[in-house]
Here is the input.
Amino acid sequence: MEQYYDLTPLLNLIHTWLCGWMPEWLALTLEGIVVGVFILIMYAVLAIILIYMERKVCAAFQCRIGPNRVGGKGGLLQVPADVIKILTKEIITLKNADRFLYNLAPFLVILASILTFSCLPWNKGGEILHMNIGIFFVLAASSIGVLGILLAGWSSNSKYTLIGAVRSGAMIISYELSIGICVLTMVVLSGTMDIQAIVANQADGWNLFKGHIIAIAAFIIYLIAGNAEANRGPFDLAEAEQELTAGYHTEYSGMHFGFFYLAEYLNLFITAGIATTLFLGGWMPLHISGLDGFNQVMDFIPGVVWFVGKTFAVVFLLMWIRWTFPRLRIDQVLTLEWKYLMPVSLVVLLLMTVCKVFGLVF
Amino acid sequence: MIMSTLKEYLEGYAGGIKSLLVGMRTSMKVFCQKKVTEQYPENRHTTLHIAERHRAMLVMPHDEENHHHCIACGLCQMNCPNGTIRLTTEMQEDGEGKKKKVLVKYEYNLGSCMFCEVCVNVCPQHAIRFSNEFENAVFEKEKLLLTLNHEGSSLAK
Amino acid sequence: MELIEKIKKTAPDATVSENGEPVVSVSAQELHQVAEALYADSEHPMDYLRDIVGMDWGETGLGALYLLESTRTGHRIILKTVTADREQAFLPTVSDLWKTALIKEREVFDFFGIRFLNHPDMRRIFLREDWKGYPLRKDYDMNSNPLNMENEVNADITDEYFLKPDGTIADKKNIVFDQKDFVVNIGPQHPSTHGVLRMRTSLDGENICKVDPILGYIHRGIEKLNESLTYPQTLALTDRLDYLSAHQNRHALCMCIEKAAGIEISERAQYIRTIMDELQRIDSHLLFYSCLVMDMGGLTPFFYGFREREMILDIFEETTGGRLIQNYNMIGGVQADIHPTFCTKVKEFIAHLRSVIKDYHDIFTGNVIARTRLQGVGILSREDAISLGCTGGTGRASGWANDVRKHHPYALYDKVDFKEITYTEGDSFARYMVRMDEIMESCHIIEQLIDNIPAGEYKVKTKPILKLPEGVFTSSVETSRGEFDVVLESHGDKTPYRLHYRSTGMPLVHAMDTVCRGQKIADLIAIGGTLDFVIPDIDR
Here is the structure.
């Protein structure tokens, strides 16, 4: 049944058809443009959905209703209205800022986010950037973002932004380690760095279950570190509102600020998406061995629904965490990483390797 | 020594995670509870309750025959710490030839009132009181200058 | 009074006033000696300087009242000193004995132009540095400072005045912030200064080197205004000092005026006042919880506090007609009788609060992040707390039992049973726990009173025009965040000659520098949250 939803034949068909009446380079360029526009649209739409979700979820945690006026009772048009507002706002130029870096920074942040976003496996054959070291590329691309944050903080020529940026730099570089090790754990388990292959490997069971408690530990560490990577509470000290007003993007306005804002939400989605890919079987449906009828029904649901559904479940979990805990202090964030998460993730990696070598995994 | 440090480390680990889970349980409990938000303009005629004693603006009650109780003594004006109240009075002769001060205009500046209730407390006739009509927002400052006595009103007998 | 005998030993010319409360006058030359003797007294060491009240006695000269208390025995004494020279007014500093004088003397300098010898930092505190004249002097020209739209430049250099051996007075410059310091402006518009407070903070990386609070952004000159208001009119302004202690502030002023005028208020009014004070304390502490949690980045528990506080505000509004500014206490009683539903509502509320308070502790108190952020952070020692005059929950968290309700009971506090919550750690967590425990203690007090409110008048009749006898009168209450004192000097008119309020928050803001040094910026916010100050109360 899965083959049913496989996008590869369809895409191949389109490609052959295009090549039939234009040179291949033109066809590839055309396809590239279409896919690029598609990514950007998806990106914007997902951001709107995520912002709306965050506002509603956060409101529910806080005994409130959330947006409920613009666009009917649910406030569905609130976020689009905000997007239009932010598009029409003036982008201010600062007097003593480093003009070039100041303008470059938001693009770096959004670039990193879009690059990573393109690697997510939406469906069988539904991956935009496909390469045999996909997960490695994700790690590499996502760390461009911190450069943008550091540049934003530095070039704004403000003390608040500088402190925010340095905090963010110290934190993200530390947490990259844990993320890397957790990802490596899963690479060890799957035996490949190809994202599609990692997902395909989970056809007989999600990695979370395949790797026993070790995988669960890796999953939790990944979520904590991923949360920190996305600069979200309780690790939002780069933009700690109560201390630094808005951290590294204090001096930005209009769509430049909008880019930071978009990237923040998409990074949340990407963190959750990678977690889904690595641990929760990506677009693989849920199978429970022994219940064949149930499994068949599950197979009818398209892979993209599975992927988006699982990702949003993880997003909700991350929102739940964000709206429950107070913020950590910079030294505590680093202590948590270097004294607790790092050692544990190393142990997890070691155990996983041992298990894999001795064939102790499912 | 190392064992006890390790034990401490692990206990700290476990205790920390437990406290986080307790926190998440609590927030999920509230997530599922009924929300406390009141929808203001919609609830104006349903659940909105403004306390009877709420002080929103000064009013001068008039009866059906357009009579008020203000004898224009000026105590409220004298006692107002902000100079919010201004009385215009004139001397009128009643039927028996006695001169009496009567109220012409009772001006009240809602914009500078701080609702201290001193005016109401000093009024010997209970001619003024605070009402709980709270929707007093206007776009121009001048509209906050109110005249409390109605057109053509006079002192109750 | 044996203390007065002791003062007379040091200063033979000391006199005691006959009107109002006893005030011991000492000459400016002997002031420091007397202060030292009182500070080191063996029986009643006067180690707590409650307040310094600047005064302008016209012809007699400028001067100040020093309100002292012994934390060991609770004895109180008021010293008075005058300097006749209005142009070059100098008094000796007492900041070497009590650190709180460092900021209180700056206030006196700002308002009266009295310079304190050997005080290291004689800058203005509330007013602009280029302000002309000293506004609380009786001969101040009201038109001398037209609205100034220029930016205020803060000097990094300050003056210290000292006496040269030949008897002349010289001026020395002290540096507040060096050129090399990395100074970050926290405030006046900042999410977590709880109002328009500005703290110039010099940093070394994330660590704090020095905090210099700059006050006065919401200074309204309430003390000056009071001098032209009749006594009933002055009441309206007390609610606007510390708006989270509106009832208690007004209670203090009413008590002071009633004491001076000899008005006995009814038992019923006493009950109502006490209950209202405690409800106000719960209200304030719930807001404290909310704001502290929000300052630390936890936005969800913030709403829990507001949810319950809303119920108190509804109860207040039903009876007093106000939510924040209530105008309830009056000279001779209260404005109106309690609403018929008041008692049931209050009992319902307490039952509800007891049922939800566990959520508060589950989501924040026990949380490992909250604990590591608060425990051991911003330690204020008991000695510092007393010397800096940090009353209220802040002092009690440092082990200083300073609850006015216990040590100088007023209203019904000597009739109810309650514990004075003290902790010994003195860190942010202790300050937080003191307030959380006090919520429950206040519930306990209210429960004892709510069913026993006696019948009777809620207000006794007072004269339409109230004139107080001559003299100095004081009263003190425990507000939500510390000891609030009213110092009233009457010259027999229907307006006060001078009406001064002890700001509960000013010593707390002053303590920021001591407490924050060496901590992180994030701690500054947490410490500010646990010290729990309200800016309008500081700036007045």
